[in-house]
Fold Recombination protein RecR.
Amino acid sequence: MELPSKLLENAVNEMAQLPGIGKRTALRLVLHLLKQPSEQTEVLSSALIAMRNDIQYCKECHTISDADVCAICSNSSRDKSIICVVEDVRDVMALENTGMFKGVYHVLGGKISPIEGVGPSQLKITSLVEKVKAGNVAEIIFALSSTMEGDTTNFYIYKQIKEFEIKTSTIARGIAVGDELEYADEVTLGRSLLNRIPFETSIKPY
């Protein structure tokens, strides 16, 4: 794609690195910004820089937060004995939008995937096991996507905590196999939480 300006080309190339943004869409976005008042672009730039430099991760559940402890973990009305294990912050937002979960979350930061070079040590699994060992957890709900990687991660964690006297469950498969939680509608996702099943019954051999 030939562009009349090197500055424009650099901006388009950077924008095109965002997920789901191709060169043509990047060009359209950059040209839109170019037409706006310079103050608006500066506000956008400042917001992105502040997000990148100042955002924190909750020391209890590892979700994105503006403080050491996120609003969910610091909420005294949440039941901290019930922990819903998810892949990333997008899943927390999807589940929160249902309004049906009153426990807390634990964000792993990904799924075990040997093909992509992601092993258990690269995920927030140890801190989850430590929570269980502390004796304050009554139930772990596995809410990872129903993919090979998601099921592998669920089973790995299950093996780490099965010796402890806690309930383990998984969300009901109202979510289609292979689907990500963030794309599920709120009603289906909410029902899958309410109708969760014991994890042992969901284990299937590969």
